[in-house]
Each structure stands twice: as structure tokens, then as C-alpha cells.
């Protein structure tokens, strides 16, 4: 039974439909939690959570699926969860005070349970996102709040979305080995299939000034290059097996840099030959989800494995690392350069924490990220600078947000 069918059964049960299996409806709450929740995500998501009250468990469930038509089951499940996974401080973050004040503006995406992620804002102000589990490409006008969702080609399950110079949204088909875009005039999809069957999971992408689309393929251990003018796709494999290329950014010369989520390395890509240069980072447990590049071409990365912020100087090959405020187990994830600072999140903490590293003083300030209705559930997997501030998401609650700041 595949996950799409599982989710259909979950929906039928929670909506109280006549087709809900009696064998499931007669189970104890613990068995229902195991069966219903694990149909969409790992039970570790519950066991490792900071915990909630009964009311907040109901709120979190409501972000995933509409439970309003089956109040009795909702009561039983939320009561069980609150009794067994109550509020605790085992994942509490450490906050560093400072002078910067943040403002958050939230938007709730229409389709529940889609795991909204990787929003990006175009110069025209429009924000695009993908709902990976819902197989959705979404469009938000932040001025009006209007949203529109497009169903991606079957089996796509896009991991990210990027914009070309024409503001066209390109998606990366993480489950069917494709990349493609939405033609804004016709609202039809153009899809490119990977030329190698081993290239299964396009992950994150970025366009250079020439219009070339560079992208990573994490578990395939590859980096790709697509020329939209010729439809030609070239792929190269990383030198170290299991490196799991993840984030990708361009320096001021248009050279792609890639972070390794499975090994202690960064990768520099020759933009002409696609020759790869591997830079080894200190620490066998080091792995880097994403990276950011400053205007002076310093390569910053989050050391997710060791809870550090790192910097690689391409001119001197010097590597410098700073401890995260919440420590080794904070799992920094997303990262971005903005306003002479490096911003990143501590994804393993609850409430999830946003950290600002001031480049001039090399000091940090951090904030616990507020969530609507008291449900401190993350996590931010990607952040990018928009027209006015950072554009982020929280996958569990299916929310997009804009963060602005002032002194």
C-alpha cells in the first residue's frame, strides 16, 4: 500500500466516512496514533518533539488534515498525545540577546499536509513554493494574500523551486528524476527527464547569469547542469561516495559551490568543464546542509553534524568555525546572507531558533521563532532573501513567512 493510498484512508477515518475500516476504528488510541500518524511521517516526529498540551496537539493535527468532522476521534487522539507527549524542555534552545528586533508575517497555504517548503520571492514580489508531499507548486501574492496551487505532473514530489530571469518557476522532481518549469502564459508544465537512470533525485537549483540551471541530486551523488536554450543536461558524480550534494550557491564569478550532507566536504564546480574540486572540512562528523556566499566570496556553511557555523576562504583555504548558541545538537539547517550578516536556524530546537551572525563583529544574536496559535513546530529547510526580508517556511504547520528586522 503506497503513501497516497494510506493518506486517503487516514482522511476517510478522520472525516468519519462510511468507508473507514471498522478494524481501524475499533483500535485503541495508541494503535491509532501508530497507524494514522506513521502513514505520512515517522513516529520519531512525535517521540522527539518538545510536546504540547491537548489543545495544541489538536491545532497541530489541524495543520495536517481537517479533523473537524470527527470530534470524538480528535478528542481521543489529542488526549492520548497530550498524556504521553506532554510539554517538556528536552529540546529547549539557548537565546542570545541583542539590539535587533524581528517582525514576522505569516501565510497559511491552502492544502493541508502538503509539507510546504523552499519559498522564493521574485523581483515582481510573487512568492513561489512547493508542497512536496502534496505534489504541489504554489503561488502567493503577499500584497493581497491570494494563493493558487498547481498540481505537478504525477510522481514529481518537488523538493525545491527556483526562478529564472523571467520570473518563471522551475521545480526539481525529487521522486521521478525530472526538472521542469511552469509556463506562466499557458499554465502548462515543461518537463526535462534526467539523461541517466542513476540520476533519480534532483534536489536544489540555482540559475546563473547566462540562464544555465545548476542543481544537486543528493542520493544520486551528482551535480547537474541544464542549458534551457538547447535542452542539454550534463551530470557529474562527486569524487567521494555518499557525499550527498545538497545546497548550491553561486559566487560573484558565477562559479557553483555545493555543500555535502553525507560527508565533511564542500565542492567547487568549474562552470565550463564541470570539473569538481573537493574541499575537506574538519571533523569526521561534519556534514553541511546548505551554504551562503557573501559579496566578497567568502563561503559560509552550516555544520549540521557538529552544531557550528563555518566559513571557508577560497583565497587562503582557511577554515573558521563558530559554535552555535544552542550547542552541538542544534542541527543548523537553512542559511542566507542578508544585511551584512549570516542568518541560519537551529532546526533541532523547540521552539526553533533563528540566529544572526554579524560579519563585522563576529557575534551572534538569536530568537525563538514564534508560531501561530502556540504550536512551535518547524522546521525551516531553506531560507532566501526576498524583496523586504527573509522568506521562510515551516513544513509541519504548512506556513510561509516573511521576516523583517529593525534596531
TrEMBL record:
Q: What domain of life does the native source organism fall in? A: Bacteria
Q: Which Gene3D superfamilies match?
A: Cytochrome c-like domain, YVTN repeat-like/Quinoprotein amine dehydrogenase
Protein name (Swiss-Prot/TrEMBL): Cytochrome C
Amino acid at each position: 500500500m503506497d503513501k497516497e493510498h494510506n493518506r486517503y484512508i487516514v482522511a476517510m477515518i478522520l472525516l468519519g466516512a462510511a468507508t473507514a475500516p471498522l478494524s481501524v476504528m475499533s483500535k485503541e488510541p495508541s494503535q491509532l496514533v501508530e497507524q494514522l500518524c506513521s502513514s505520512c511521517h515517522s513516529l520519531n516526529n512525535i517521540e522527539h518533539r518538545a510536546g504540547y498540551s491537548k489543545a495544541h496537539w489538536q491545532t497541530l493535527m489541524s495543520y495536517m488534515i481537517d479533523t473537524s468532522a470527527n470530534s470524538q476521534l480528535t478528542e481521543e487522539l489529542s488526549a492520548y498525545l497530550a498524556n504521553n507527549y506532554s510539554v517538556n524542555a528536552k529540546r529547549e534552545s539557548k537565546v542570545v540577546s541583542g539590539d535587533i528586533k524581528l517582525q514576522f508575517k505569516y501565510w497559511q497555504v491552502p492544502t493541508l499536509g502538503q509539507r510546504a517548503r523552499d519559498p522564493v520571492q521574485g523581483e515582481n514580489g510573487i512568492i513561489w513554493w512547493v508542497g512536496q508531499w502534496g505534489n504541489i507548486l504554489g503561488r502567493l501574492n503577499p500584497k493581497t494574500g491570494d494563493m493558487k496551487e498547481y498540481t505537478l505532473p504525477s510522481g514529481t514530489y518537488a523538493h525545491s523551486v527556483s526562478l529564472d530571469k523571467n520570473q518563471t518557476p522551475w521545480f526539481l522532481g525529487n521522486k521521478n528524476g525530472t526538472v521542469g518549469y511552469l509556463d506562466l502564459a499557458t499554465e502548462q508544465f515543461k518537463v526535462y527527464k534526467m539523461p541517466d537512470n542513476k540520476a533519480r533525485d534532483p534536489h536544489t537549483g540555482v540559475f546563473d547569469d547566462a540562464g544555465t540551471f545548476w542543481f544537486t541530486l543528493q542520493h544520486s551523488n551528482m551535480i547537474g547542469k541544464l542549458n534551457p536554450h538547447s535542452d542539454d543536461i550534463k551530470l557529474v558524480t562527486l569524487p567521494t561516495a555518499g557525499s550527498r550534494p545538497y545546497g548550491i550557491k553561486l559566487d560573484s564569478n558565477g562559479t557553483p559551490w555545493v555543500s555535502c550532507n553525507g560527508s565533511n566536504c564542500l565542492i567547487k564546480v568549474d562552470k565550463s568543464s564541470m570539473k569538481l574540486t573537493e574541499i575537506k572540512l574538519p571533523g569526521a562528523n561534519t556534514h553541511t546542509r546548505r551554504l551562503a556566499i557573501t559579496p566578497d566570496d567568502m563561503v559560509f556553511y552550516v555544520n549540521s553534524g557538529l552544531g557550528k557555523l563555518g566559513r571557508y576562504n577560497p583565497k587562503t583555504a582557511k577554515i573558521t568555525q563558530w559554535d552555535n548558541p544552542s550547542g552541538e545538537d542544534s542541527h543548523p539547517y537553512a542559511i542566507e546572507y542578508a544585511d551584512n550578516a549570516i542568518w541560519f536556524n537551529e532546526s533541532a530546537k523547540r521552539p526553533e531558533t533563528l540566529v544572526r551572525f554579524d560579519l563585522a563583529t563576529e557575534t551572534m544574536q538569536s530568537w525563538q521563532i514564534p508560531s501561530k496559535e502556540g504550536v512551535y513546530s518547524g522546521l525551516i529547510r531553506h531560507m532566501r532573501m526576498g524583496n523586504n526580508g527573509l522568506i521562510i517556511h515551516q513544513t509541519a504547520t504548512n506556513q510561509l513567512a516573511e521576516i523583517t528586522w529593525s534596531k
